[in-house]
Design a protein that fits this description.
176 residues; 3-stranded parallel β-sheet; 6 helices; 34% helix; disordered C terminus
Amino acid sequence: MAENGALLYRPSDHFSRLLCAPASAALAQKLGEAHAQPLSIGRAIIATREPYETLVIELIKDLGLELQVIFNKGAVMVLPTGVNKATGLTAVLKEMTIEPRHVVAIGDAENDHAFLAMSGVGVAVGNALPMLKERADLVMEGKRGFGVTELIDRILSSGLAEISPRVPGAAVPIMQ
């Protein structure tokens, strides 16, 4: 999954599938003309950084586009309405025939809320935003990659058996 849930990509055979409308060429052009920096244009996502969020919202309105702005610790991402990491994860899990309740998701920022909420266990790393930590089932002490490593070690040692699932009757993934 790539582009904040808008693109499925399988590295083994370089398969990719866009899950939504492509990035708005008109919005990308206007942001470029306004010298928004940095400016990244993917297949579906347009990304810049704060303080350009106001400009992004004004241009979306002026162009009459139905797009959403998603934040990620200073990053400003523009995607079609309703597209997020959870929609991408849903598509991946459907292809793999895995239920969301069997997934452990880990995140740190605003764009991770839906992704963590749909998973069997939602985990925040130590440097996650306070609101994400409040909503997570488990908060790691380690920051960034150290928090991911801490989670992997915990899964390998205990299988997360001590975590109560959010959904009654849901199974928490247990590593054997």
